[in-house]
Design a protein that fits this description.
Keywords: Signal, Sugar transport, Transport. This is Multiple sugar transport system substrate-binding protein. The chain is an alpha/beta fold. It is built from 18 helices and 13 strands. It folds into two domains: 170 residues, D-Maltodextrin-Binding Protein, domain 2; 190 residues, D-Maltodextrin-Binding Protein, domain 2, CATH 3.40.190. The strands form three sheets. Strands 1, 2, 3, 4, 7, 12 and 13 form a seven-stranded mixed sheet that branches. Helix 9 crosses helix 10 and helix 17 runs antiparallel to helix 18. It starts with 13 loop residues before the first helix and ends with a helix.
């Protein structure tokens, strides 16, 4: 099976590979069976403390209706999942179905089935057109849009009142003014998570906010002049003491918990943040506003994660199609999306969830959404470089030099 150098160096020894894979949730790849049933290996990312339980229930219900198919579940953290899948590809032990964000690198290496081979035409037609386009390369759809999300600025109303701030900031200048007032009032102004969990998302807010971005399916533009301006603004916010200590080692999930407990003035959050506040600190007085940009132009980071199916030694497309069609059926899919607090990618799901007021502020922002260039085969490498290096802004790295270094990694240099 073709393997690209984009997945990193091969595992050093067979013993190391065996030990690494044995510690994970399934062996994968061989098309095994259990008691006469065909086995599907499903690897998914963890979105919340409920993710594993939700998937277990879906699998239990599916297996009750399909006794000839068994589904093995492996739940990985977002911090680990990219490294885990790279290791498994090197060992030709990839799962049958994977939930992750970027898929283009896998498609470029001819590792994935086209979407039309793994779901029915009815399921394929149910996806929103914009998400189908975002999941396609040169007219062929490989990714199945899984969930959508948008970002917005969450702010602590009590903190704003204490600091004398009358409204959430719309521009960078207003953001800096609000941050200075919050700091003077003894409040940590802003949470900037630049750790490995999702540094590319926080960075995107400032790149796109400066009029830049990551590029498109054909070309990545990490070191553009606009992005340098965005990175310079990030560094300015850090050096002026407007963020938590050590942003480069801080991940989004724990930092959002800090905001939820009322210990941050502002942080960018997602639709699930609403539910997390309700569960963990329902007394928190907070507001949701568009993300501040250089000139105040409306913007949100839209994210669409995907499901995809790998080609393995045994053709499992019939079983894969049964499972994925079941998952995307309206009642099953909307239950999962609602439980995790995201936005649906299907037309039937959007219709069913359209009256949910907790996601309305994010749905309103989607027309101005910008997306990762996930169909660029070098995006996975770029994302990894951003995650590992962008935190150096807090250590005095020169923005222009740092972005040139990340661009080189993205270009495979």
């Amino acid at each position: 099976m073709k393997k690209s150098l984009r997945w990193g160096a091969a595992v050093a020894t067979a013993a190391v590979a065996t030990m690494t894979l044995a510690s994970c949730g399934f062996s994968g790849g061989s098309g095994g069976s259990s008691g006469g049933a065909q086995t599907l290996d499903l690897m998914v990312a963890s979105y919340s403390d409920n993710t594993k339980t939700e998937w277990q229930q879906i699998i239990k219900d599916f297996e009750a209706k399909n006794s000839d198919i068994k589904v093995n579940l492996d739940v990985e953290s977002w911090t680990d999942i990219n490294n885990v899948i790279k290791t498994r590809i090197q060992a030709q032990k990839q799962p049958d179905i994977l939930n992750i964000d970027a898929f283009a690198g896998f498609a470029a290496d001819d590792l994935l089935y086209p979407a039309k081979d793994i779901v029915s035409s009815a399921t394929l037609d149910d996806f929103q057109d914009a998400f189908k386009k975002n999941a396609s390369i040169d007219g062929t759809q490989y990714g199945l849009p899984f969930i959508a999300s948008a970002r917005a600025l969450f702010y602590n109303k009590d903190d704003f009142s204490k600091a004398g701030i009358s409204a959430p900031p719309k521009t960078w200048a207003e953001f800096e003014d609000a941050a200075a007032k919050l700091k003077a009032a003894g409040i940590t102004p802003y949470g900037m998570p630049l750790g490995s969990e999702e540094a590319q998302a926080e960075t995107a807010l400032w790149f796109y906010g400066a009029g830049g971005g990551y590029g498109d399916a054909k070309k990545l533009t990490i070191d553009s002049s606009e992005n340098v301006e965005g990175a310079t603004e990030m560094q300015k916010i850090i050096t002026q003491g407007y963020t938590e200590a050590n942003p480069g080692s801080t991940n989004r999930t724990p930092l959002l918990n800090v905001f939820i407990q009322g210990q941050l003035g502002m942080q960018v959050g997602l639709p699930p943040t609403v539910g997390q506040i309700k569960d963990k600190n329902p007394s928190l007085q907070y507001g949701i506003a568009p993300i501040p940009t250089k000139d105040g132009s409306p913007f949100t980071l839209g994210v669409a994660d995907h499901l995809m199916a790998f080609k393995n030694k045994t053709d499992k497309t019939a079983s894969i199609k049964k499972f994925l069609d079941y998952f995307y059926s309206k009642d099953v899919y909307t239950k999962w999306v609602t439980a995790e607090g995201f936005l649906p990618t299907t037309k039937s799901g959007a219709e069913a969830m359209g009256s949910d007021e907790t996601i309305k502020p994010f749905l309103d922002l989607l027309p101005n959404a910008k997306f990762y260039p996930s169909t660029n085969p070098n995006w996975s490498a770029a994302q990894g470089a951003i995650q590992s290096q962008i935190g150096q802004l807090g250590q005095g790295a020169k923005p222009e030099d740092l972005l040139k270094s990340i661009q080189a990694k993205a270009d495979g240099q």
